[in-house]
Amino acid sequence: MQINQKRRTLVLTLLLSAPVIFSSVLASAGPVADQTKKELKFGFVPGPYEDTFRKGIAPILAKQGYRIRYYSFSSGLEANNAVFTGDIDANIMQHSVFLEAYNQRNKTDLAGIVHVPTPPMGLYSRKYRTAADVQAGARVVVPNDPVNLERALKILAGLGWIGLKPAANPIDVTELDVASNSKGVKITPLESAQAPRALEDVELAAVQGNFAIYSGLKLTDALALEKMTLPYVNVVAVRKQNVDVQWARDITAAYKSPEFQETIRNDRFYDGFRLPDYFRKS
């Protein structure tokens, strides 16, 4: 009788504690993705991505019953943190290499769901009209974050001005990865958003496409544009748990839609942008 009583007590204890254990597992897994939400919060940094979204994507989502709220951030770090904490649902402002570097350093789980039209980084000058005019020893401003610094250095290398060490990790690139400098350019790292203003004080600046457009610089005026490869084409970023929810799939479908692609192709503003591969398949 005592053994049976102990068994009944153990079973009762397990049954009573099961909801607590189950709820703890759910809590550790993060909030459950909402498949039915109809209000979407998007974050942007200065650049063309919000205008592109408002013009070509928002009307498509509105027809599906979505309400859109817009949030502005001064930096990509703030925009990514807002997605991770759930303050916004998605942001549109970064390429996959930057996103992966952010995840590694912050132990986060953001993921890209679709590529978007992206202006390439360019080398700009108010003093010189062409790259051939640039004199030896010119000062050039480059982004101070490693991922975008690598892009700027590749532009200089493509012009034959510098040589780079092979197999440099984009996440850890510094000026020390410059193996040779036949042009004698003076490389000055600076926060990316400040690069357009620096053109008043230096001969050259490597400016990310979004900041160039935001400051009034034209892609067609660049002395050289980067040969943008796929990892550097920007993405819509969401929490990993939301990659396959309905609203995320609807965002992806809107970008890949014929309506959006027609909007981009018919607007000369996007001349020089790197278009995602799905444009070529339509």
Explain the layout of strands and helices:
Elements: H1 2-29, E1 39-44, H2 49-63, E2 67-72, H3 76-85, E3 90-95, H4 96-106, E4 110-115, E5 122-124, E6 139-143, H5 146-158, E7 162-164, E8 178-181, E9 186-190, H6 195-198, E10 204-207, H7 209-214, E11 224-225, E12 234-239, H8 246-255, H9 258-265
Parallel strand pairs: 1-2, 1-3, 6-9, 6-10
Antiparallel strand pairs: 3-12, 4-12, 5-10, 5-11, 7-8
Helix pairs in contact: 2-8, 2-9
Cα separation of the termini: 76 Å
- Tally of domains: 2
Uncertain spans, ≥5 residues at pLDDT below 50?
1-30
* Radius of gyration, whole Å: 24 Å
Strand content: 15-25%
Order of helical and strand elements: HEHEHEHEEEHEEEHEHEEHH
Summed up, what is this model?
The chain is α/β, with parallel strands linked by helices and 282 residues long. The protein contains 9 helices and 12 strands.
Task: Record keyword descriptors for this entry.
disordered N terminus; about 280 residues; D-Maltodextrin-Binding Protein, domain 2; five-stranded mixed beta sheet; alpha/beta; globular
Task: Walk me through what this model shows.
Strand 1, helix 2 and strand 2 form a beta-alpha-beta unit. Helix 2 (49-63) packs across helix 8 and helix 2 runs antiparallel to helix 9. Helix content is 37%, strand content 20%. It is an alpha/beta fold and 282 residues long. The chain folds into two domains: 39-118 and 231-281, Periplasmic binding protein-like II (D-Maltodextrin-Binding Protein, domain 2); 122-227, Periplasmic binding protein-like II (D-Maltodextrin-Binding Protein, domain 2, 3-Layer(aba) Sandwich). It is built from nine helices and twelve strands. Residues 1-30 have low confidence and may be disordered. A five-stranded mixed sheet has the order 2-1-3-12-4, with helices on both faces. Strands 9-6-10-5-11 form a five-stranded mixed sheet. A two-stranded antiparallel ribbon has the order 7-8.
